[in-house]
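Exercise (ungraded).
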Amino acid sequence: MSDPETGGCVSCGMPMRSDADHALGDRSKDFCAHCSNGDGTMMRYEEVLTRMAEFLQTAQGLDEQVAHDAAKDMLAKMPAWQQR
Amino acid sequence: MSAHSSGTREIGKQRTRRRILAKATRLCARNGFSRTRTLEVARAARVSHGSVFVHFRSRDELLSAVVSEMTREITDALHAQVASGASLTHTLAAHLECLAEREQSIRWLLLEIPLLPRGVHAPWLAFQSATSFHIGQAAERDMAAGSIEEMPLHLLFNTWIGLVNHYVINRELFAPNKSALRVHGPVLLEHFSNLISAPASMARRRKGTA
């Protein structure tokens, strides 16, 4: 299972094609391994936001505030967080 | 209303939405995002102007959907091409291939993104994020294996993307009326790989200290 519109993680949007892409390697999970806690539950919004902002800084060198705002904009489009 | 007619109507609605999106994508690739008007999209899709707004609340939302769809296709293709354990060179080659297939649209986005509505920025950044994720994963593996230099991931990514984007933006200087990435991609990849490969840079350092 995954986001029916995009086929990606409902939390961060990452494409999920192989078992390993899904949380706990379980295809019934609609979120990815990166958005999963160790027990297979989905991370809280604040954790995903922080991790995504940190990732944007590490991977692209974005300014801290820009990275935070960009991560917030991106998550706002994700099915898991649209109601926030 | 029967469930059947409701289902048929929904399928028709989805089909119309896809047609509008496909025509908008084509027009954006041809004329640029900032010059694409909803009236033109409606004409191309053979729907009324109002129908466009039944499926997309505003022009901004339509443009955002075009960018989301296009960048998602590239991300999916990159994800599919980059098997687990792929080297950085293989990942970058896959990146070039994915971009080359949609080079014209990417070029417009690079030129126009600061002028486009904020709603378009999120899918564009998400795309850059996904690209940097795949490149970063491959780079970390190669760094751990000692086949490329240790360096901050963002500098590696920005150096690569800066090189590629420069050729895409200035395509008319490097490959008039052709795909800059099809013409120059292999050389760019070879050059970048040489720059970051560990043995070559170590050799350069040794030469410098000799």
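Further reading is listed at the end of the chapter. For now, observe: The longest helix of chain A spans residues 45-60. Chain A touches chain B at residues 6-8, 13-15, 17-18, 20, 52, 55-61, 70, 73-74, 76-77 (CB under 8 Å).
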